[in-house]
Amino acid sequence: MNMKLIRNLFCVISLFMFVSFYTFSSNEFTTTRSYMNIVQKGYSNVLTYFNRDTSSKEVQAKPKALAMVPMKSVFSQKTENLEVYPGGSCVGVKIQTKGVLVVGFSDVETNEGKAESPSRKAGIELGDVVLKINNEEIENSKDLIRKLNNMTTSNVTVTLNRNNQLVDKTINGIKAATDEKYKIGLWVRDSTAGVGTLTFYDAKTQKFGALGHPITDNDTNTILSIKDGSLVNTSIISVRKGQKGTPGELKGVFVEEDNPLGSIVNNTVCGIFGTADKTLGTRSSKPLKVGFRDEIKEGKAKIITTIDESGPQMYDIEIVKLLSQDKPGPKSMIIKVTDPKLLEKTGGIVQGMSGSPIIQNNKIVGAVTHVLINKPDVGYGIYIEWMLKDAGIIQ
């Protein structure tokens, strides 16, 4: 396909954006995937994106110093003797978004030689979610293409979700020189798949939490809204050791995709959440009590994570600093890996460890979320109570 044809595509579908170390074993995925590392303020989500869409780009910002958040009162309902099964095992994540996410624009060339994007001209913005076309709901990217191909007039009304507000826009489509069909010059994405780490499973409610931070789109940094999602088994096949300036990563493959472990229903700033069957509880020998913020101390702790075929193992870390937060979020504490075995194998925290539970005094107190780019043995963790709230286990 030459560049001119690419420019004239009104809708580019990116079927799968990989949220971590996903090694393809199927011919369905091309070998032209590109490596994405989201870098913000000198740290990186412990997840890596792989994208079929070669137009995608690396998103980076200059490193900034860590800073304390001013103290404000944030309360959670503390439940005495609450117990959950700690995770630490790698799990596959597959989600379908609500509507389709706008990730870019393309110019449409007319018979008169003009080229512009009707969608950009109409005020569509990156990160908008297209929910309806001419008051008809959009199921996925293919559905959007079908509806646009059936257009008999140039004008189309789209209903968008923009920052949780419904917005209507009218796009004046352009009849393209290539095929005489109306185009709107829009690139969209409707699904994502990848690998992360399970944080906890609550046997009483059959609810789980994982990752400790949201799944976001590479191009727009938008938190993806989930329509359907599933949790599947994953197997680790190799590890790349982290170095200063280059985060390491785990590599793994999905297994038993047709036999999901559970359903993903929410993707929030504190992770992904859903319901699962009782097999998730058997991945740990016993449940652990929950340690709330007032019980956590700076000092020695452990994480449970999977770096090879031996499965979840405990490794030593240090909680360097407990951070004050005025609202729930994935950066609650600064942690440092001290375990010689983990440092030798991975260099510290690597991409794929997002969600690894943090244990202190035999209680689950948080989860790993980020790694510092220039210090692979140092990163962030989230307070477990933030995840339990978003899972609906505590108030």
Automatic annotation (TrEMBL):
Residues 165-395 form the Peptidase S55 domain. InterPro entries: PDZ, PDZ_sf, Peptidase_S1_PA, Peptidase_S55, SpoIVB. The gene is spoIVB. This is SpoIVB peptidase. It comes from the Bacteria. Pfam families: PDZ_2, Peptidase_S55. It comes from Clostridium folliculivorans. The lineage of its organism: Bacteria, Bacillati, Bacillota, Clostridia, Eubacteriales.
